[in-house]
Amino acid sequence: MSDHAPDTDPAAQGVRPPWHPGRDLTGRLLFLGTGTSVGVPLVGCGCDTCLRGGPRDVRTRTSILVGLPGGHLLVDTTPDLRSQLLREGIGKVDAVLYTHDHVDHVYGLDDVRPLCFHSGRPMRVLCEEPVEDRIRKAFDYAFSTVPPAGGGVPRLVFERIGTAAFEILGARVVPLRLAHGPFDVLGFRFGDVAYCTDTSGIPDATWPLLTGLNVLVLDCLRHTRHPTHLSLEEALAVADRVGAQRTLLTHLSHDLPHEATNARLPAGVELAYDGLELPLG
Ligand SMILES: [Zn+2]
Ligand SMILES: [Zn+2]
Ligand SMILES: [Zn+2]
Description:
This protein has 281 residues and is of the alpha/beta class. Helices cover 19% and strands 25% of the residues.
């Protein structure tokens, strides 16, 4: 971790700004983003979804915020993190949990700096080793032993997780090993809600951890097959086998316009959208 106080951190100068922690999401799950790695609209795209889509066709990169008894747990830090927190009125995040090390899930990490100005503490970062390695490379300035000249740096404390269940912020979290093409990534189960983004298949050992769900949040990229994500047809097959009361599809591309796609989905399956909130219980 970086434990030197950067000189642009207002708290370090004794001029901590007034804190507006914003909305309290205790007991709720909020979709900060539901879009694939390039987001929707896609830059320069002339398709109907991108040019003429409705508000629910605006998809920032995929992430959720989970309101646990002891605070707000952010799952992944997308390149859209700052705008997601501002859009949703969130001023307090107590820990960050990572699914995997891809750019669309990690590269907004610098945006945790203001959260730490206010809390006065470094950010807890829970992840597997490849994610920590990626963060140490991509954000090497945060780990320099030389104090930064002028620019602030994110202050981070790593906590290693694996596939064993763990406690965080007063809740038990069950990691779910998922296949994401050739990559091993993690989903997470919070009570009877499971979050499984960025997957192309559920390994045999994970199926028993997906029983009795109220809500399954599941990767679904597009209609046609993809090497690292579920197609709509594949996602529906997984949803059917899991049998959750409600399945919400995420990590969506512009191939799946919100209204038209939702109208054709089977009962109990819906597209998630940015800003969607649901109870955790
Ligand atoms: Zn992704
Ligand atoms: Zn498009
Ligand atoms: Zn990924």
